[in-house]
Amino acid sequence: MKNKIYIATILPYKENYTFSEASAASLWVYEFFKKSTFKKNNFIFGSTKNIDYLSANYININLDTIRSKLSSKTNFYCEKISKIIKRKKFDLIEIHNRPLILINLHKRLSHKFIFYFHNDPLSMKGSKTENERLKILNITEKIIFVSKWVQDRFFINIDPKLKKKTEVVYPSVEKKEFKNIRKKEIYFVGRLNQSKGYDLYNEAITKILNKFPKWKAYSIGDEKRRSIYIKHKNHFELGFLKHKNVIERIENAEIVVIPSQWEEPFGRTALEAASCGCATITSNKGGLPETSDHHIILDKLTSSNLFRKIQLLIKNPKFRKKKQLDNYKNIRHIIKTNTKLIDQIRSEIILDFKLNIVRTKYKIINIYNAGQKLNHRLFNISLGKKFTNGFIRNGHDVLEISDRDFIRQNLPLFKLRSNIFQKFLINTFNNYNPDIVFFGHTNNIDLETLDYFKNKNKNLIISQWNEDPIVDGLEYSKQNIHNILKYSVIADHTFLTTSPNILFKKSDTIKNKEKFHFFFVPVDKNIEEFNVYNLRPKNDIFYAMSHGVNRGTLKEGKIDERIYFLDNLVNRLSDIKFDFYGFKNQEPIWGNDFNNALINSKMALNLSRGNPTKYYTSNRLASVMGNGLMTFIDKKVKMQDIFSDNEMVFYKNIIDLSDKIKFYSQRDTIRKKIAKNGKKKYFKLFNEKKITNYFINIFKDKKIDLF
Questions:
Q1: What region does 678 belong to: left with phi over 0, alpha with psi -120 to 50, or beta?
Q2: Does residue 564 sit within a domain?
Q3: Which of 46, 238, 472, 487 sits CB 3.0–4.6 Å from 611 for a disulfide?
């Protein structure tokens, strides 16, 4: 598991992430990047021809190609970025100020997204309509706005309760040294156009410079379609300056003017002027009032009003100094504080620690066949049910999904069932946000669905279990191996009731053998609840098999090697009372009928399909030993590695088995002792809590022996 968050931050391709031409969004990203705890693993994407990048973690996308000119630049930009994100396996994608990029990348990638709005959402392609904005809410983990004004614009005609998925994080600054000695200078910073109020500034500043000739005024900014020019000997146009140079200028100035006539999303210059200790005059448009509590506000947007406000500051040095100090001492938005807020949002979206460090109790989706369509007649042999019990008793939370029952119940057209089930799994995953997805004996989960889970949560553990045999002499084992290997390519762990070494011998394509583990069929205190050694059973030996748990009845003409073995055994023991099911027209039994038959026999035979194989046994072993029947098992299964002769009876062949059945059927005292010891040992080593805790320890990369 990864113990770091890898973040891809994507700027609009027209945004210039360079010292020479950085504007609001680039400066936002750079300022918060510098203080972030994730800076080592945060990579910033953009497109520029310049090379003076703001930081070394920048990845430039070259859009100066023939292909980009012949197609949509947005599409080409997203295609290039998505390939890098897939290759480098990023955890979190942050997109700034371009809804169309978010929508495009969401179609290409199954990742978690944060979207940042720097401008009015109702003015941007992809977020103008209610449905477009609702879609953005749906496909992102969090939306961050640069001001409350921008947030309010987004939620026009949208339920305000959905604001819980959003946050306001303001552009921020670092506190600078206050300059007591300042130059008699007034600054305008921004586009030199009417929307920024440059026409108002033109008229007002000309009058000011005429009336106060010792003062000078400066304009910083540019405008391609220029129509407003200030002609005065004490006014100087500086053009577009690097951000660093802008700050150097205004921190020595007395007054900064921001008379915007359009709805400013925030107003970074107003915040920076306040932090530099300037007396600042602003309009009350958009998010400008959110930049400081101590600006001088233009209640009327006229040049004469602006003139009066500037004149007030010039003629009243004490008032001007007070405004400067009020701004300086009461900076509303500090980089350090807001960086912590952003990092907290990131951490909440994707955990950046290993499972065993962050949590001790987990949320688990357990997918298995619960047998609802079979009226739960498999409850006492269901491993999935025992796993749920074990996880819960160990303090974890479990959400169960019965795959076969869902598919059977939810759609009559078979070809569409899988799609419906995949959507159900994905929606359930998104709502529950599990730590572990645990499944067994299913072909109903698409690999693409599991891949989606992994992309949504890089720390997720995906694990499969399989209780069916991997043995020689059994055709079904080939299909079972295929089923196991299908999911092992994406599963973090695979648990088998057969020794994994057997599987390795049968498939030389397996890599990462350390991901395969043996597990023992568990017993459960609420399921294996009987102590047959304390009862007086009428029959000597119990055995039950079926021709398939889903079928539930004998299948005409179906014979396997167990039938011949049982025939031979019965013929050898004419005086023994057998209680065999699934044999000689005796139908299989299930549920409570199974329990009632089981407790009426002194001993049990554990005989599995195929050739005896190391450690493989069906779940009947838990049923018979767990309920206190003395149990016989072939030596070639190697159970003597776990149990002693005082806990289980091992036989070499059918003759040896026949002799031992005769012997123990007539010796109740020793038979009861072995049965009692066997149950005690089984519950000590392989109860539902021990087995599920064994799984959890493996998930946490702890080396642990099963027995």
A1: alpha
A2: yes
A3: 472
